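Researcher: Let's walk through a ligand-bound prediction step by step. First, I give you the protein sequence. Second, the SMILES string for nicotinamide-adenine-dinucleotide. Third, you return the three-dimensional complex as structure tokens. Ready?
Model: Ready.
Researcher: Here are steps one and two:
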Amino acid sequence: MTGRLEGKIALITGVGGGIGVTAARRFAAEGARVVGCDIDRDSAAATEKLVRAEGGEITVMGGVDLGDAEEARSWVDAAVATYDGIDILYNNASTQRFAPIEELSVQDWDFTMRNELNLVFYTVKAAWPHLKSCGGGSVINVGSIAALRGVEFMAQNAHSTAKGGVIALTLQLVVEGGPHGIRANVISPGLTETPNTAPMLADPPERMRKVVLDRIPLGRHGQPEDIVNAAVFLASDESSWISGANIVVDGGGSVLG
Ligand SMILES: NC(=O)c1ccc[n+]([C@@H]2O[C@H](COP(=O)([O-])OP(=O)(O)OC[C@H]3O[C@@H](n4cnc5c(N)ncnc54)[C@H](O)[C@@H]3O)[C@@H](O)[C@H]2O)c1
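Model: Step three, the predicted complex:
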């Protein structure tokens, strides 16, 4: 590792999940002091243990439901207090529900907005005054190629809308954050292999294989490292004049109509 995040204080959400584990490990390996969280206590504790065993500096709070504004604020405040500041807020956590428009219940819609969009608003709102008082920082929000196009194999009505909202919110953060040295960018992953997606990728529905997987110009689906590589760049000073980017990390698949 090259110490690209040496000494930086990085808040990362959803570190118990597929890409979040890799993010926590890599940020710590690059020298960041990481404060993570996850709604799931066991996976949160497992990530903390893993990263510490690798020699990384990390504190992870489990049982934090970021879809609740007060819990999100408490986590951010506690995280900022842990290392007395904040340089990076990486909004990785999300959960969603899928259904065709006629079957999508209002509850499923609300659940998805809460757990994909509202939680980003809550953590950013809580972190904003701290970022300002620290002289700036990097906000990394996770969108998705789902926000860029419709698909025939997944009923992503609520999911794509929420991720579209994350992208739109980020654009305004760019404008309001600039004068304070706060940068805000999006990473939009394509289909990435995690414990949740691995079974589907091992035996993909015919439609998905034909429409998506066989049409990725770079010839493979994503790995968590592919996404986290972009996050390290956006978190580091190498991207110090980049704000408002939406880095699509999908092997080139989304450029095909
Ligand atoms: N894996 C993919 O193919 C893919 C594709 C496009 C975008 N993404 C995005 O990348 C990010 C990470 O995806 P992943 O595949 O690792 O997901 P994942 O489901 O494996 O992990 C997400 C983590 O977030 C946590 N979480 C969810 N809701 C929470 C809440 N309210 N409060 C606190 N923690 C919460 C979950 O417990 C889980 O550990 C997500 O934003 C996802 O939408 C993933």
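Researcher: And what stands out?
Model: The beta strands are 9-13, 33-38, 57-62, 88-91, 137-142, 182-189, 246-249. The pocket of nicotinamide-adenine-dinucleotide is lined by residues 14, 16-20, 38-40, 43, 64-67, 92-95, 115, 119, 142, 144, 189, 191-192, 194, 196-197 (CB under 6 Å).
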